[in-house]
Design brief:
Elements lengths: L1 E4 L5 H11 L8 H9 L3 E8 L2 E10 L8 E8 L8 H15 L4 E7 L3 H9 L3 E11 L2 E9 L2 H9 L8
Parallel strand pairs: 4-5
Antiparallel strand pairs: 1-2, 2-3, 3-4, 5-7, 6-7
Helix pairs in contact: 3-5
The protein binds coenzyme A.
């Protein structure tokens, strides 16, 4: 599995992952996703195996984020690549990008019924900080999670060779 930054010609394959991961009612639109990826205060990380995109994460920070600090816009792994630690790696890389932008916290929203994602975030040190009713649709609440980032973690990941390519 290769972990790398996004290239412009990845977009069709990346958007195919979005279509496999989310029901049309909850998908990001193509234009919205292109804007997120093109935002200079964002980083998109790709996990690739044998030329196939297995998953990706998009994180933003600064004034365009939906709150102070970093904001995980999405993290998605193709069904056939799940439960192999791909999301854990993509999340670590998103956190490094936020830290490299001198931002010490990251937050996100997750569907209150999305058990695999909630387990991932709690395992990775995110703490629940609230609930927003009807955030995704009527009756589909969001949980808000926040993690305070530790620059020491960045150093240890850099020693594994990840930091040098972070935004
Ligand atoms: C949520 C999501 C991103 C998780 O992706 P994933 O790659 O399966 O997650 P990981 O493999 O990193 O971690 C999941 C599990 O694999 C385990 N794992 C990690 N490394 C592993 C390895 N090398 N071998 C086996 N299992 C491993 C983790 O411990 C974790 O276990 P648990 O969930 O049983 O506690 C994925 O389910 C997904 O894409 N869902 C649809 C999109 C979505 O809902 N995104 C979140 C939006 S908020």
């Amino acid at each position: 599995m290769i972990l790398r930054r996004y290239f412009a010609d990845d977009f069709p394959a990346l958007y195919a992952v979005e279509m496999h991961c989310f029901d049309p009612r909850f998908r990001f639109g193509k234009r919205f996703m292109e804007r997120l990826i093109g935002n200079p205060q964002s980083a998109t990380w790709i996990a690739e195996e044998d030329g196939v995109i297995a998953g990706f994460s998009i994180v933003t920070w600064g004034s365009d984020a939906r709150c102070d600090g970093g904001y995980l816009q999405t993290i998605e792994v193709e069904p056939q690549f799940r439960s192999r630690g791909v999301a854990i790696k993509l999340l670590s890389l998103a956190e490094i990008s936020v830290l490299t932008a001198n931002t010490l916290s990251i937050s996100l929203h997750v569907d209150s019924e999305n058990r695999p994602a909630i387990r991932l975030y709690e395992k990775c040190g995110y703490r629940r900080r609230g609930r927003r009713e009807d955030y995704y649709a009527r009756g589909r609440d969001a949980l808000r999670y926040v993690k305070l980032l530790d620059p020491v973690d960045e150093l240890s990941l850099q020693s594994l060779g990840f930091g040098s390519t972070a935004a």
